[in-house]
Amino acid sequence: MSINPLEHLCRVWTRIFSVEAERGEGIYLYDLAGHRYIDFTCGIGVTNTGHCHPKVVKAVQEQAAKLLHGQINIVLHQPALQLIKELIPLVPEGLDTIFFSNSGAEAVEAAVKLSKHATGRTNVIVFTGGFHGRTHLTMAMTTSKIGYRLHYQPLVPGIFVAPYPYLYQLGMEEESATRFCIKELKRLLKTQTAPNETACVVIEPELGEGGYIVPPNRFLLELQDLCREHGILLVADEVQSGYGRTGKFFACEHSGIVPDILVMAKGMASGIPLSGIATRKELTTRWRTGSHGGTYGGNAVACAAGVATIQAILEEHLLENTTQRGVELVTGLKQLQGQYPCIGEVRGLGLMIGVEFSKPDREPDPITAKAVVKEGPAPTTT
Amino acid sequence: MAQECPKIICSIPGPESRRIVAMDTQYLATGTKGSPVAVKWGKGVVFEDLDGNRFLDFTNGMVAGIGHGHPRVAKAIQEQAGKFLFFNGPDFYYEVQSQVAQALVRVTPGDHRKKVFLSNSGAEANEAAIKLARSATGRKQFIAFLGAFHGRTIGALSLTASKVVQRETFFPMMPGVTHLPFAYCYRCSYKQSYPSCDLWCAQILEDVYFKSVLPPEEVAALFMEPEQGEGGYVVPPSPFVQKIQQICQKYGILFVADEVQAGCGKTGKLFAIEHHAVVPDVLNLGKAIASGVPMGATIFRAELDFPKQGRHSNTYGGNPLAAVACLATLEAIQEEKLLENCQRMGQRFADGLRGLQQEFEEIGDVRGLGLMLAIELVEDRTSKEPARALRDRVIDACCSKGLLLLPCGMSSIRFTPAMVVNAEQIDTALGILRESIREARASA
Questions:
Q1: Predicted-complex ipTM score
Q2: Which residue in chain B has the smallest CA separation from A157?
Q3: What is the domain-level CATH number for residue B101?
Q4: What is the total count of domains within chain B?
Q5: Which of residues 147-176 of A touch B (CB under 8 A)?
Q6: B260: closest CA of chain A, how far (Å)
Q7: Residue B174: closest C-alpha in chain A
Q8: Concatenated DSSP letters for A24-61?
Q9: Mean model confidence pLDDT for chain B
Q10: How many CB atoms lie within 10 A of CB A315?
């Protein structure tokens, strides 16, 4: 009996294309027939150094031959230590302590758990349109699409939602949107979750899944002030925006905010599952030893790939390239916008660029967006 | 009003009662109604239905603890109604509100400073205790017991674990409640026997729960009925209650005594927790506290008080009618020496029930304090298989003979006549029960 694996592949995954990728190189993917595709998805912001970057491949191969897995509760190993050494100078100043896990959701879970222990508070504030993962806690924090939580409720309690400064849909300018969103956040603290019950505010410095939306710097700075005023920890979820994606190593650098906890994943190891948080030692002294962990966090092969990824980004000046190519891409997209009124807005930082298809009244136009994507390899819809 | 009772002049329900039952079925939400009895008037332990049948009421002592239509209570309500029916008690001041709080502080166990939150029901009293415990301790978790009934609002329901029907389709509950098996020695969850068990059902909290699933420093309060009500009139051994309280004290967990059903004299002491020589941090009252006028009260250590105005409140708490009814009830209990009567009558009734237990193999257990008594019916005493159908037939047979009873637990019958019950009424009830058990077992 021959097994058709496609019939046994779980349908819960949305399969956007039927392309079967055999290999990848740089920005290209090749299918079994040798057709070449330009990959503007990077596997959702993962292969930031390009598919199969030779440095990363070599690091993985070498590490695989030495030590595949050295559980971090049990032993130390060079790849993890080396990755910490590479990472500390790159995270916002003052963040000096690293925790590793495997996926973005896991890293967000870690950030919230740390926030609860460090503050002795229980509640979490997130923003509309946010995507923080698909585990029960992170699903409760995710508000970008109803499908992520439909029929999974009830979710973890103690999550409160404030408006994200989505200028285009609010129909506001930077200043008025900042004022509105800060006011709403303050109202939330007065009416739904008292500051002394609020452990942290979790925000994506550029909204990812929710539409590649860039908030005003002023908003992020005022948010930071508000958090500090109330002893609420500021958590930047840079799972999608981190690791050079926006032209800076972390998107926080665009506004200059320094979060108390920075969450990273996706691009960290160019495709090997690896995630982590960077925070201040002072906070982790209140994170009781043994109260969090994980089997694979800081896996040797993943960390080796992580070290090679950072080296590639720095040595090959990929941040500069991201910025330059980003400008070109935005320029081109804006030209298209001039030609096609269905393109409502072009936005984003570096190479984290979104195009919003909308009707003349700014109502979203998903039909056009999906039709464009279906034409062939193209940016993923958000 | 010395009247012949019971007096059954037609089969129950008679035509007038049937009319009300039909109307009720048409218009009232489905609830917990059992016996088709429609009341015309009640006095003491006696009531008459619309068709002129007269019954002994061995159920409503739960609420009309000092008897139906007690003259003191009736007079207090009438007088108060002539002055003012309602004034926003939580927002303003009036004397009977302060007086009732003072009276409750004085009569409840413990010489420490206490304060009172007034509400309208037992569930509300428990909700207030949940909020008070979180507010005072800054902790979020709770402990309650299997078999417990603490009310039907979502917070109180989350503590309740007596019957699945009370919870099904209402999930999600308030998170943060851990339930422990209760010291229900007749059906020990650990298949041990008291006292050779060395109170494992209490010690397990510290030795297993606190080490594996529930960090004690996150537990705000533990709720316990000193005699479980709805769950089957289960009286835990006093050393169990004491040990649980010691564990609570050790870890800074508030001990909440839910006396909604057991409180106000029914057990022969004003509060059932006094039988166990334990002083709770919080004591909750409802049901009989105002002889039938809706009232709940949460009496707590003064230092636990809400630190801010507005953190908790309600509309009708301290309602003047309830306040005067409560004051009159407490006075009646004291002046008419109802606790003493309750102890004597409770003893007489319990002796009678034990006599029936000798006679009927199906009475597996006789238990309870004062006039809060129950028998548990079983298929046989070895398997202890709950004899639910038999239990229901006994209740129906008693009703047809003019003795009104309510079930509780899996296969138990509860007896809660008002504290004014006399020896003749107890003996009559025992006679009807005996006859009804005979009939019910024969009709199997």
A1: 0.71
A2: B175
A3: 3.40.640.10
A4: 1
A5: 154, 157
A6: 30
A7: A157
A8: EEBTEEEETT--EEE-SSHHHHT-TT-BT-HHHHHHHH
A9: 96
A10: 9
